[in-house]
Amino acid sequence: MKRNKQIDIKRALALAGSFNFLYCCARACLLPFLTLYFRQLGLTPAMTGIVMGTKHLITLVWGPVASLLSKHYNKRRAVINCSLVGSVAVALVLLLIPPTDVRTQTSTCNASDLSSGPSQSLGGNQLMGSVTAPPQSGASFPAKTPPDTEPASAATSKTHYDEDKSHRQLSQGNQINGSVMHQTTDSVAAPVRNKRSDFKPGSGEQLREKTMEEERMEGYFDFLGSLKVMDPQHQLFFLVLIAVSVWESASAPLEWTADDGLYEYLDYADASDRYSSTGVWGLLGAVFGVGGAGLLVSQLSCLIADKTPRSAVHFYCYAGGAALALPLATHLPLYLNRKRDRANGLLKAMQLVRGSPRALLCAVTTLLVGVTGSAVDNFLLWQMQDHGSGELHMGLSLALALLSQTAFPLLAGRVSRLLSPGRVLTVGAACLGLQCFYYSFLWGPWAALPAQVLSCFSSGALWWAVKVQCEDVATPGAERSVRRIYGTLSLHLGSGLGSFAGGFAVQRFGLPWMFRGAAVGLMLWCVCLPLLQWKAPRQRRINYSRLLAADASEASDSESEQERDWLDKAMEDDRGNNNYGRRINH
Asked: With 474 labelled, which of 101, 114, 527, 571 sits at a CA distance of 20 to 30 A?
């Protein structure tokens, strides 16, 4: 960027805000409903947790690395555009993966048809349960039962009979499939072996090359045979895991790269204080996306064109929103500041957090909030679906939670006068625990709606307290790096760990007990946190920007006082001279 080029700050903020609105709107059309789509495909809770946890861990590692590489090679705009297009292309590939059972395509379409859908087997310590297995251990998916339910004894005996029958059929099917696959593999590999036996010895080098090539072909056919022997649910799991991993690898660099480019652009123009205004547009876009997608999908029939389930509309909305954001991405205001080394900035921020006891307590709190929040994000819609909620109820509930989060800045001044930032942090984490406990007792389609209002404190107030903590611990120029440390701990590391733990907890104990366990764990930490904060020494750093502003104001006051003193002295001298002149004249 040339020095003589005039910078239009309002235009830059308008472009960045519009891009954030459209991109967050596109993501909100799909990501909150993604685990619901995995359930419709036939994945168990443990499989879903592994997929989502892998997604968060890829973002944790690849996002910063890709952003650093794009800055090093000055390819930020190319990375943003390729990430936007590539993520849409890979996301649409998920629609090509067939479900494990044809009935799952319409089982979650309507709340009245939930009883006909597949149930997840949660009993035992098995990682993968059969999708069509009967419910066990008092936890089933879905939990809604038809009114003409059979008596308990008859239903129990029928359940065990059906289970034994399904296990016998499954074992017979696996034996048949294994024999067929073995015969197919042998038949395919037979020409290779025959070719090897018929090969006449020639030169030694050619013989060795032929032998190695034939051995590789035999190993390849054996690998294909082992994949075909795998049951359909495990095949589905690995296909989804690979697709989601590639998808996240394509989309992870976008947010970090665009964020760094915009901040350095505003910092170059001495307008970095207006950088935070673009985040509000992202939240509003997410509200519009999740609410609009839920409303749109709820108005469609179970199957749309060409026997496609209506849940595919979430993917199409995601693609449409990304396509609208692409022209803005090509004109995003970006600037490359080679003097700013963000890798060293992050290391310095980690040292600052580690050196402050209160900052460490805040980091542990954000990590636990991320673990608990991922459990809510991944399985709340499952719990709502089990109690009759449709896409409309889910979309409006999530939109209300985001609206409550955006409303907290209006209350921040009043809350800061009543509570210290440490207590606000405790209150925010406690509100999230109360939400989880409430979610375990849902009773109807709209039952989750009242608890969403608490997101004003469980999310909005909590991150306001984290921001204040960052200002206390950070040195000049390191505030943004410290905030990124906290955001990474919560949004990626905590969410990844929470996804793994939440999936296995739902698989073993069921949805209600998973929410209750998360609530109890977070509430126990909220009880210990005030005591630990009281014991921890407060090390408040000097805010040099405020100090410089105060020095400037004091300097201006002293200068004005000196000017007044000089003027008063001059006026007194003038009066003295006049009086002396009058005396001489007389």
From this structure: 527
